[in-house]
Amino acid sequence: MKIGGENEKSKMFKNFRIAAAVIFAAIYAGAWFGLLPKAAELFHVQFGPSVMNLFCGFSVGALLTTAVIALLTFVCGRFYCAFFCPMGIWQDFVSFVFRTKRNERRNFQKTRYVIAGIAFGALAAGSAAVFMLLDPYSLFGRFAVSFTIGASVPVIVIGVLAVWKKRIFCTSVCPVGTLLGLFAKKGVFRLNIKQDCVKCGGCAKVCPSGCIDSASGTIDNERCVRCMDCMAVCPKQAIVFAAGSKSSDKTSFNASKRLFLSAAVALAGGAVTGIALAKSGVMRFANAVKNAVLPPGAGDIDRFSQKCTDCRLCVKACPEKIIRASSVTGHVTLDLSKAACRFDCRRCTEVCPTGALKALSLAEKQSCKIAQAKTDFQKCIKCGLCSHVCPVRAITFDIKYAGERPPVFDGARCIGCGACTHACPVDAISILPVEKQTFITKRS
């Protein structure tokens, strides 16, 4: 089986790829901007967050997503980067608008392996800091939700890199792309240049990954993002996408062995560095908001800061708009001064793609203690309004003694949702953070 041989068919495949990328870009935008809230479920099949979920815990859904995308990448190559990755789509758009001509054929193998090693080593040691900075999904999510300088700068920088060297971020920096490249390098279907190539160089000029050397007739399938632009422009249909084809790599066995050892050392060195940095505490950016109320399912500050990449999908999904993005690089928090956490809502736990917020059932969410209410009885006017709104009956009040006796608070029942604070007419109730979220089991 092969794709190629007829230029028109190759162009059709390229157009299909572009159409699919546009559709997925529209879905992503709709989810992040709140226009398509249900589309947020699509982010659970994002490769980067799924891999991260496996490093920092375990999820059957994340395991299946990782396995399926890895298998498809091994079979077909890095199609994910061209079809589904929002940052990849963004780079293609920028390159198209600015008619980028320059690309980079140099293989920054050691650079990308060191970066990937640091990212995955830090994950293994319990820090999501590098993924927070480099994961394409999280970078674009912060930009789409919060048009702040901090959220915009990385996307703008990657856009500038796309104008300069097209997909150099994907091929030399992105740890997700590096991992996918390892699956694609010796995959089942690979792009190859046939002997009837006339060395015109047209394929190399349009390649966004800079992975084609038309002079030697080789294609680096590890960096190729399967845009198929090369096939569409080839005047002799000399580029084929075929199963069981011979590798385009014409290096000798000894040279290949040296390259493999060099790559292994770079990857291992990066991993050791990432582990050391994570263990040293250098990467724990989230300490800036340590004494804060966390969304339900976060657990505690250490667990949450290890898994949250600050993608801010929960910020957009929250119907009460009380999940607040950090002003610094870190994680989101709950701002219960604006509104209460709705008792019948668990949207934030549903949309979180990394497992930073555990996927709670509604019953679990309704019993999750996210904070603790505290009453200033010197301010309390004994009206009893707080008891009427408490969803877990942590506040009791005898109406016969209105104005005489204060409400009775059962701190063990309280889940810290904040409903009582917004019912209180004199601001006598405050909400305090808890060190670790627990589940209230008794409500008789």
Oligomer: single chain
Query: Count the helices. How many?
Result: 20
- The secondary structure category is mainly alpha
Q: How much β-strand is present in the residues?
A: 5-15%
Poorly predicted residue ranges: 1-6
Mean pLDDT: 85
Q: Mind summarizing the main beta sheet?
A: 3 strands, antiparallel
> What distance separates the N and C termini?
66 Å
Broad shape = elongated
Give me the side-by-side strand order of the main sheet. Answer: 1-5-2
Tell me the helix content: 40-55%
Number of strands: 11
* Radius of gyration (Å): 26 Å
Describe the structure concisely.
This protein is mostly helical and 444 residues long. The protein has helices at residues 7-32, 47-55, 60-76, 79-83, 86-97, 109-124, 129-134, 136-145, 149-165, 168-172, 175-184, 202-206, 229-233, 253-280, 301-307, 313-317, 347-351, 362-366, 385-389, 419-423; strands spanning 2-3, 189-193, 212-213, 218-219, 239-243, 323-324, 333-334, 368-375, 395-396, 408-409, 429-439.
Structural description of this entry:
By secondary structure, the chain is mainly α. The protein has helices at 7-32, 47-55, 60-76, 79-83, 86-97, 109-124, 129-134, 136-145, 149-165, 168-172, 175-184, 202-206, 229-233, 253-280, 301-307, 313-317, 347-351, 362-366, 385-389, 419-423, and strands at 2-3, 189-193, 212-213, 218-219, 239-243, 323-324, 333-334, 368-375, 395-396, 408-409, 429-439. The protein has a 3-stranded antiparallel sheet. The chain has a two-stranded antiparallel sheet with strand order 3-4. Strands 6-7 form a two-stranded antiparallel sheet. A hairpin with a 4-residue loop joins strand 3 (212-213) and strand 4. The chain starts with a strand and ends in a 5-residue tail after the last strand.
